[in-house]
Amino acid sequence: MIELTDITKKYGQKEAISELTLKVEKGEFFGFLGPNGAGKTTTIKMMAGLLKPNAGTVRIAGIDIGRQPEEAKMKTAYIPDSPYIYEKLTAREYLEFTGGLYRMTPGKIKSQSEWLFDLFGMNGWADNRCEEYSHGMRQKVVFCSAFLHDPDVLIVDEPMVGLDPQSVRLVKDLLKLYSRKGTTVFISTHTLTVAEELCDRIGIVHNGRLIALGTLSELRSIAAAEGQNLESLFLKMTGGPRLAGLPPGVAVD
Q: How far apart are CA 193 and CA 186, in angstroms?
């Protein structure tokens, strides 16, 4: 459902992503991990059609997003790390607007919206303007708009930012449910416990290049680190920081 072939993206002379090739199958729950500046968000924006690669191709559900961007985007939902929404619209109006972009019928938009508002506990807020919402509430609106049209591919950048524990559990359950029914879920997150809990396969990108790919068991074999958790594997592969010592005058009892 997602196929990246030799994609490269440059900012000036700097290569944010270099010759990345990756294939994610239908119904797969895929985690895309890396340190800050590794190229994760750049890759996601190319998959969502917000950036064009300097080289290579991005296909969503077999559609080349560079040649047929509208057709590819109709198959996709994208949840960014910051919730960008029209603040003067209510949540209900925002979902009506989103549903129209995906050519949904008014009846379908209404029924799906009511289900999602109830699911996310937003019924008391659905007719308030988005400018009145907290960050977490705005994130809920973005999730509602993503699930609204039952996408074939769901691309999520840092899914849990700003959500309360109940909403985090709900989002994890929803993402897993959609994956099981055939939606391809592609998430980038720094919350490694979430990736370890949910993902079928994991790719680790570092300095713009894919350095490891596989199941958690396969990553352990690659890193020669049997039994270690994902955090330990990630730090080993990406050169995580080491505490060299304590500042002068600081002692441990």
A: 16
In angstroms, the Cα distances linking 46 to 103, 105, 204 are: 23, 29, 17
Give the torsion through C-alpha atoms of 57, 59, 62, 67, to 10 deg.
-70
Kindly tell me if the per-residue pLDDT of 54 is higher than 60.
Answer: yes
Report how far residue 223's alpha carbon sits from residue 215's, in angstroms, rounded to the nearest whole number: 12
145: Cβ contacts below 8 Å, ≥ 6 apart: 77, 94, 95, 98
Give the chain's largest Cα–Cα span.
68
What are the boundaries of each domain within the chain? 1-75+153-239, 82-150
Tell me which H or E stretch contains 156.
Answer: strand 153-157
Residue 31: the pLDDT is: 95
Q: Is the CATH number 1.10.1740.10 carried by domain 1-75+153-239?
A: no
Question: What percentage of the chain exceeds 70 in pLDDT?
Answer: 94
Angle between helices 135-147 and 91-101 (to 10 degrees): 30
Strands (E), 34-94: 55-60, 63-64, 76-79
57 vs 15: CA distance, rounded Å = 16
